[in-house]
Each structure stands twice: as C-alpha cells, then as structure tokens.
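Figure 6 in text form: structure in, sequence out.
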C-alpha cells in the first residue's frame, strides 16, 4: 500500500513465501494469469529488497538468516533421505566391522588402524588428534571438510544416486571407525572425544548430502521444466546449502584442532560441547527453517 513501510525482515519473509507459491504455480499452472501475476509481484519485491546499497551491506546476514533456511525448508525431504542413508550405512559398517576382523583395515587403511591401536595401548585412544600442531590441523581439516561437502554435492550432477553412494561410503567408514573402538573396549572413552567435533562435522555432511540429492533429483525429475532449467534451479539451491555450511565446517575444524586434543577434559565439559553443537545444528537446519516458513505464511500448524 502507498505510504506503508514494511520492515526488511518482514519483506524478506513475504518474498520467501511468494517464491514458494510461484514455484508451485509454475509447476501446476505454467500458463495461468495467476502465475504471471505472482512472477511480476516477486520481481517487484525482489527489487525492493535489494534496491539500495544499505541493504547490500547486509547481504551476508540475509544469506544466512533467510536464504539458507528457506532452501533447507524446501529440501526437508531430501535432508531426511540423506540422514536415513547415512544411518543405515553406519549400521552396516558397525555390523561388518564387528564380525569381520579385516573389514576395518579395508575401509580405514592399515596405517590409520595401526596408529590407533598403538594409541589405545598407550592409554589415549584418540591420540591421533594431537599428533600435529593445532594450527596446521585446523587449516588441513577445515579445507578437507569443505572439500568433502563439495564432493558430496558435486557428484549429484551424476544423479542423486551418486550422492547416495558417497553418503553410504562415509556412513560405513563412521560405523567401522566406532566399532574399532568397541572391539578394543574403549568406545565409551573414545566416542565422546570424537563427537566433540564430529557432531557438527557429521551433521554437515548429511546436510551436504541433501544438497547433492536436490541437484541430482532436479536432473532425474524435471517436472514441467526443461531438464536443463530444472538442473540450474536444483544446482543453485544445492550450492546455497553448501556455501551455508562453510562456517560450520570452520567451527568443527577449530574444535577438532584445538579442543579434541584434550581427550581427558572433564566429562561435563565434553557433554556441554556435544549438546551445544547438536542444538545448533538441529535448530538452524531443521527447526528454524520451519519457524521461518510458519512466520512467513501465518501457518501455526
């Protein structure tokens, strides 16, 4: 309405809902007047949001406050599929490593297993995390984690099946890894230490899997769009998710490099870090997107 001022936050919420409605309209009623109207309205609101330099300065804030969560809401099914694949693979890895002594070495490699067994004998099962300087570890681990997430996403270009296989392999590695500690009767000593950084790191890989599945499905199931147009949309949404994960990988890398090495810290501090990490990941990638959507639509269900 003329003369009525709407806050940038509210305008962004309206834009999120409008683009959601527009996407549905384009899929179900591509030639209708309603679709044309929604498209024009979305364009006007988009220009209103980004028309001035002041708002551009807040682009980074807008990206993580609205854009990433809105994409996460739209890929909530893919996130669930990614989680299920990862968990099932982890269970398979656990069972395989439990009943086959050679499986862990096949998956993790002789060098890694031998070093871990030596650390177990010396009384520090997770000593591998303190073998290098904290700064060197931080740079290597953070870069490696970011690259892993991009690989999980990028293989989606070969269809979502490839992302599923990548998730499956990582899940088997995780299951084998923890079972190795179980077989040596040090699981309850090692697991809380590993999960200091693993809570964020592993959750982020699952989220990256959702990005890859989203891009892969856009190729397999283009709907009313051309396959190339569908691919562009799926790739753009997936890329937003992966870029949104970068700060979380930095945090995980920091914890793994500077905190995990203190394996014998008080158990209460370990539990606090685990709990805070879990709450952050679940809230930002699951709960907050739903709340943002409800606030934008006025839907309280």
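Output sequence:
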């Amino acid at each position: 309405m003329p003369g009525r001022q709407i806050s940038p936050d509210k305008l962004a919420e309206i834009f999120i809902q409008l683009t959601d409605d527009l996407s549905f309209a384009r899929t179900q009623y591509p030639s209708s007047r309603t679709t044309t109207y929604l498209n024009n309205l979305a364009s006007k609101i988009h220009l209103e949001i980004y028309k001035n330099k002041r708002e551009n300065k807040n682009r980074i804030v807008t990206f993580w406050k609205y854009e990433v969560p809105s994409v996460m809401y739209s890929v909530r099914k893919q996130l669930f599929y990614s989680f299920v694949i990862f968990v099932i693979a982890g269970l398979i890895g656990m069972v395989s490593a439990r009943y086959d002594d050679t499986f862990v070495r096949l998956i993790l490699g002789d060098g890694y297993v031998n070093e871990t067994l030596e650390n177990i004998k010396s009384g520090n099962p997770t000593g591998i995390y303190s073998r290098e300087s904290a700064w060197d570890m931080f740079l290597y681990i953070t870069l490696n984690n970011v690259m892993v997430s991009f690989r999980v996403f990028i293989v989606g270009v070969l269809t979502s099946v490839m992302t599923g296989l990548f998730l499956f392999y990582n899940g088997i590695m995780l299951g084998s890894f923890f079972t190795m500690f179980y077989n040596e009767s040090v699981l309850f000593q090692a697991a809380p230490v590993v999960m200091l950084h693993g809570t964020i790191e592993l959750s982020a890989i699952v989220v990256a899997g959702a990005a890859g599945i989203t891009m892969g499905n856009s190729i397999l199931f283009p709907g009313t769009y051309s396959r190339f147009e569908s691919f562009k949309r799926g790739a753009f949404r997936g890329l937003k998710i992966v870029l949104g994960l970068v700060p979380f990988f930095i945090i995980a890398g920091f914890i793994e490099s500077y905190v995990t090495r203190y394996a014998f810290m008080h158990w209460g501090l370990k539990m606090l870090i685990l709990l805070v990490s879990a709450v952050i990941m679940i809230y930002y990638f699951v709960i907050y997107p739903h709340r943002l959507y409800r606030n934008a639509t006025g839907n309280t269900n």
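Caption detail: The chain has twelve helices and no strands.
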